[in-house]
Protein backbone atom coordinates (compact mmCIF):
# COMPACT_ATOMS: atom_id res chain seq x y z
CA UNK A 1 0.00 0.00 0.00
CA UNK A 2 1.50 3.31 -1.11
CA UNK A 3 1.06 5.81 1.74
CA UNK A 4 -0.52 9.22 1.33
CA UNK A 5 1.55 12.01 2.87
CA UNK A 6 -0.32 15.15 3.98
CA UNK A 7 1.62 18.42 4.25
CA UNK A 8 -0.23 21.27 5.94
CA UNK A 9 0.18 24.95 5.19
CA UNK A 10 1.13 28.14 6.99
CA UNK A 11 0.02 28.02 10.65
CA UNK A 12 -1.48 24.57 10.08
CA UNK A 13 -0.76 21.19 11.63
CA UNK A 14 -1.47 17.49 11.39
CA UNK A 15 -4.53 17.89 13.64
CA UNK A 16 -6.42 19.63 10.82
CA UNK A 17 -6.69 16.40 8.84
CA UNK A 18 -8.93 14.39 11.17
CA UNK A 19 -11.80 14.05 8.71
CA UNK A 20 -9.45 13.01 5.91
CA UNK A 21 -7.61 10.45 8.03
CA UNK A 22 -10.90 8.90 9.13
CA UNK A 23 -12.21 8.64 5.57
CA UNK A 24 -9.05 7.56 3.78
CA UNK A 25 -7.39 5.22 6.28
CA UNK A 26 -9.44 2.20 5.25
CA UNK A 27 -7.79 2.28 1.82
CA UNK A 28 -4.53 4.16 2.42
CA UNK A 29 -1.86 4.48 5.04
CA UNK A 30 -2.01 8.20 5.86
CA UNK A 31 1.00 10.10 7.17
CA UNK A 32 0.26 13.65 8.35
CA UNK A 33 3.40 15.61 9.13
CA UNK A 34 3.83 18.63 11.39
CA UNK A 35 6.27 21.08 9.85
CA UNK A 36 9.00 22.47 12.13
CA UNK A 37 7.69 25.48 14.00
CA UNK A 38 4.02 24.47 13.62
CA UNK A 39 1.47 22.13 15.17
CA UNK A 40 2.97 19.30 17.21
CA UNK A 41 6.45 20.41 16.15
CA UNK A 42 6.06 24.02 17.26
CA UNK A 43 9.14 23.61 19.45
CA UNK A 44 11.46 22.60 16.59
CA UNK A 45 13.81 25.16 14.98
CA UNK A 46 11.97 26.97 12.22
CA UNK A 47 12.74 26.90 8.49
CA UNK A 48 12.62 30.10 6.46
CA UNK A 49 12.71 28.66 2.93
CA UNK A 50 10.31 26.43 1.02
CA UNK A 51 13.28 24.27 0.00
CA UNK A 52 14.25 23.92 3.66
CA UNK A 53 10.78 22.65 4.53
CA UNK A 54 10.82 20.29 1.52
CA UNK A 55 14.13 18.71 2.49
CA UNK A 56 12.91 18.35 6.07
CA UNK A 57 9.79 16.43 4.95
CA UNK A 58 11.81 14.17 2.65
CA UNK A 59 14.24 13.40 5.48
CA UNK A 60 11.35 12.70 7.84
CA UNK A 61 9.82 10.24 5.36
CA UNK A 62 13.13 8.43 5.01
CA UNK A 63 13.38 8.28 8.80
CA UNK A 64 9.96 6.60 8.81
CA UNK A 65 11.10 4.13 6.15
CA UNK A 66 8.90 5.65 3.44
CA UNK A 67 10.34 5.75 -0.07
CA UNK A 68 7.47 5.69 -2.58
CA UNK A 69 4.36 7.69 -1.72
CA UNK A 70 1.40 9.80 -2.83
CA UNK A 71 1.65 13.43 -1.78
CA UNK A 72 -0.83 16.17 -0.85
CA UNK A 73 0.11 19.75 -0.02
CA UNK A 74 -2.23 22.47 1.20
CA UNK A 75 -1.51 26.19 0.86
CA UNK A 76 2.16 26.76 1.79
CA UNK A 77 2.32 22.98 1.95
CA UNK A 78 1.41 22.95 -1.75
CA UNK A 79 4.53 25.00 -2.43
CA UNK A 80 6.55 22.59 -0.33
CA UNK A 81 5.30 19.53 -2.23
CA UNK A 82 6.09 21.19 -5.56
CA UNK A 83 9.62 21.65 -4.27
CA UNK A 84 9.64 18.01 -3.14
CA UNK A 85 8.80 17.01 -6.73
CA UNK A 86 12.04 18.66 -7.85
CA UNK A 87 14.15 16.72 -5.35
CA UNK A 88 12.26 13.45 -4.84
CA UNK A 89 9.94 13.27 -7.84
CA UNK A 90 10.98 9.76 -8.80
CA UNK A 91 9.42 8.47 -5.58
CA UNK A 92 6.12 10.37 -5.82
CA UNK A 93 3.30 8.38 -7.42
CA UNK A 94 0.47 10.95 -7.39
CA UNK A 95 0.41 14.63 -6.49
CA UNK A 96 -2.46 16.62 -4.97
CA UNK A 97 -2.12 20.41 -5.01
CA UNK A 98 -4.87 21.76 -2.78
CA UNK A 99 -5.61 25.45 -2.16
CA UNK A 100 -2.21 26.51 -3.40
CA UNK A 101 -0.22 28.11 -6.20
CA UNK A 102 3.19 28.37 -7.84
CA UNK A 103 3.96 32.00 -7.00
CA UNK A 104 4.93 32.68 -3.40
CA UNK A 105 4.13 36.40 -3.37
CA UNK A 106 0.46 35.34 -3.61
CA UNK A 107 -1.00 37.84 -6.10
CA UNK A 108 -4.67 38.41 -5.32
CA UNK A 109 -4.30 37.33 -1.67
CA UNK A 110 -6.63 38.95 0.89
CA UNK A 111 -3.60 41.08 1.86
CA UNK A 112 0.03 41.27 0.80
CA UNK A 113 2.72 39.21 2.52
CA UNK A 114 4.38 42.45 3.60
CA UNK A 115 1.13 43.59 5.27
CA UNK A 116 0.82 40.23 7.07
CA UNK A 117 4.37 40.60 8.36
CA UNK A 118 3.70 44.08 9.69
CA UNK A 119 0.39 43.07 11.29
CA UNK A 120 2.01 40.01 12.91
CA UNK A 121 4.58 42.23 14.64
CA UNK A 122 1.88 44.69 15.67
CA UNK A 123 -0.76 42.20 16.81
CA UNK A 124 1.29 39.29 18.19
CA UNK A 125 1.09 35.59 17.37
CA UNK A 126 -2.29 34.72 18.91
CA UNK A 127 -4.24 37.57 17.38
CA UNK A 128 -2.52 37.02 14.02
CA UNK A 129 -3.43 33.33 14.08
CA UNK A 130 -7.10 34.05 14.68
CA UNK A 131 -7.28 36.93 12.21
CA UNK A 132 -5.70 35.00 9.34
CA UNK A 133 -7.54 31.76 10.14
CA UNK A 134 -10.85 33.60 9.71
CA UNK A 135 -9.97 34.47 6.10
CA UNK A 136 -9.66 30.75 5.29
CA UNK A 137 -13.42 30.18 5.73
CA UNK A 138 -16.31 31.41 3.62
CA UNK A 139 -18.20 32.30 6.81
CA UNK A 140 -15.06 33.56 8.58
CA UNK A 141 -15.33 33.40 12.41
CA UNK A 142 -18.85 31.96 12.19
CA UNK A 143 -17.72 28.84 10.30
CA UNK A 144 -18.15 25.53 12.11
CA UNK A 145 -14.44 24.71 11.82
CA UNK A 146 -13.01 28.10 12.66
CA UNK A 147 -12.24 27.60 16.36
CA UNK A 148 -10.48 24.27 15.79
CA UNK A 149 -8.46 25.77 12.94
CA UNK A 150 -7.55 28.83 15.00
CA UNK A 151 -6.45 26.64 17.91
CA UNK A 152 -3.96 24.87 15.64
CA UNK A 153 -2.76 28.16 14.17
CA UNK A 154 -2.20 29.62 17.63
CA UNK A 155 0.51 27.05 18.31
CA UNK A 156 2.83 28.82 15.87
CA UNK A 157 5.41 31.08 17.51
CA UNK A 158 6.15 34.62 16.29
CA UNK A 159 9.40 33.23 14.84
CA UNK A 160 7.53 30.53 12.89
CA UNK A 161 5.01 33.05 11.54
CA UNK A 162 7.80 35.36 10.34
CA UNK A 163 9.79 32.48 8.87
CA UNK A 164 6.78 31.04 7.03
CA UNK A 165 5.92 34.40 5.49
CA UNK A 166 9.55 34.88 4.45
CA UNK A 167 9.63 31.40 2.91
CA UNK A 168 6.54 32.01 0.81
CA UNK A 169 7.54 35.50 -0.31
CA UNK A 170 10.94 34.32 -1.55
CA UNK A 171 9.70 31.29 -3.50
CA UNK A 172 8.41 30.60 -6.99
CA UNK A 173 7.91 27.28 -8.71
CA UNK A 174 6.41 28.60 -11.93
CA UNK A 175 9.39 27.63 -14.11
CA UNK A 176 9.24 24.00 -12.99
CA UNK A 177 5.55 23.21 -13.44
CA UNK A 178 6.03 21.65 -16.88
CA UNK A 179 8.56 19.23 -15.36
CA UNK A 180 6.06 17.65 -12.94
CA UNK A 181 5.57 14.11 -14.21
CA UNK A 182 3.36 12.64 -11.49
CA UNK A 183 -0.36 12.35 -12.16
CA UNK A 184 -1.73 15.50 -10.53
CA UNK A 185 -5.00 16.98 -9.36
CA UNK A 186 -5.46 20.66 -8.48
CA UNK A 187 -8.20 21.33 -5.90
CA UNK A 188 -9.57 24.74 -4.91
CA UNK A 189 -12.51 26.27 -3.11
CA UNK A 190 -14.43 28.56 -5.43
CA UNK A 191 -14.06 31.58 -3.12
CA UNK A 192 -10.49 31.07 -1.90
CA UNK A 193 -9.24 34.43 -0.56
CA UNK A 194 -5.59 33.33 -0.35
CA UNK A 195 -4.93 31.90 -3.81
CA UNK A 196 -6.69 33.55 -6.71
CA UNK A 197 -8.11 31.73 -9.72
CA UNK A 198 -5.05 32.83 -11.71
CA UNK A 199 -2.87 30.74 -9.40
CA UNK A 200 -5.18 27.72 -9.63
CA UNK A 201 -5.44 28.02 -13.41
CA UNK A 202 -1.67 28.32 -13.78
CA UNK A 203 -1.16 25.00 -11.99
CA UNK A 204 -3.92 23.26 -13.94
CA UNK A 205 -2.83 24.44 -17.37
CA UNK A 206 0.95 24.19 -16.87
CA UNK A 207 1.32 20.75 -15.27
CA UNK A 208 1.09 17.87 -17.76
CA UNK A 209 -1.69 15.37 -16.95
CA UNK A 210 -3.29 17.68 -14.38
CA UNK A 211 -6.97 17.43 -13.46
CA UNK A 212 -8.97 20.17 -11.75
CA UNK A 213 -11.63 20.10 -9.02
CA UNK A 214 -13.31 23.31 -7.83
CA UNK A 215 -15.41 22.89 -4.69
CA UNK A 216 -18.44 25.20 -4.45
CA UNK A 217 -19.29 27.37 -1.46
CA UNK A 218 -15.86 26.96 0.11
CA UNK A 219 -12.87 29.18 0.67
CA UNK A 220 -9.36 28.06 1.70
CA UNK A 221 -10.24 25.37 4.25
CA UNK A 222 -12.25 22.88 2.18
CA UNK A 223 -10.99 20.05 4.41
CA UNK A 224 -13.07 21.61 7.20
CA UNK A 225 -15.81 23.43 5.23
CA UNK A 226 -16.90 20.42 3.14
CA UNK A 227 -14.82 17.42 4.21
CA UNK A 228 -17.22 14.88 2.72
CA UNK A 229 -16.88 16.25 -0.81
CA UNK A 230 -13.12 16.72 -0.50
CA UNK A 231 -12.74 13.13 0.72
CA UNK A 232 -14.79 11.87 -2.23
CA UNK A 233 -12.53 13.77 -4.65
CA UNK A 234 -9.39 12.44 -2.98
CA UNK A 235 -10.56 8.83 -2.92
CA UNK A 236 -11.66 8.97 -6.56
CA UNK A 237 -8.31 10.41 -7.64
CA UNK A 238 -6.25 7.93 -5.64
CA UNK A 239 -8.28 4.94 -6.90
CA UNK A 240 -7.68 5.76 -10.56
Automatic annotation (TrEMBL):
The AB hydrolase-1 domain, residue ranges: 3-227
GO annotations of cellular component type: membrane
Record EC number: 1.-.-.-, 3.1.1.2
Pfam families reported for this sequence: Abhydrolase_1 (PF00561)
Single GO biological process annotation from the record: acylglycerol catabolic process
SUPFAM superfamilies assigned: alpha/beta-Hydrolases (SSF53474)
Membrane spanning residue stretches: none
Entry superkingdom: Bacteria
InterPro entries: AB_hydrolase_1, AB_hydrolase_fold, AB_hydrolase_sf
Signal peptide positions (record): none
UniProt entry keywords in alphabetical sequence: Hydrolase, Oxidoreductase
Record's keyword annotation contains DNA-binding: no
GO molecular function: arylesterase activity; monoacylglycerol lipase activity; oxidoreductase activity
Name of this chain's protein: Arylesterase
Amino acid sequence: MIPLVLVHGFMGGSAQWGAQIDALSSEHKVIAVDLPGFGENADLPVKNTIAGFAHWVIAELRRLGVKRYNLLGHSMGGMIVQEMMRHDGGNIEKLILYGTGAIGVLPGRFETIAHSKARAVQDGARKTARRISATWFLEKEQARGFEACAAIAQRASPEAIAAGLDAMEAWTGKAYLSQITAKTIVISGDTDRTYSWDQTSLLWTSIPNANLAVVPNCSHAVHSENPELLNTILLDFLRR
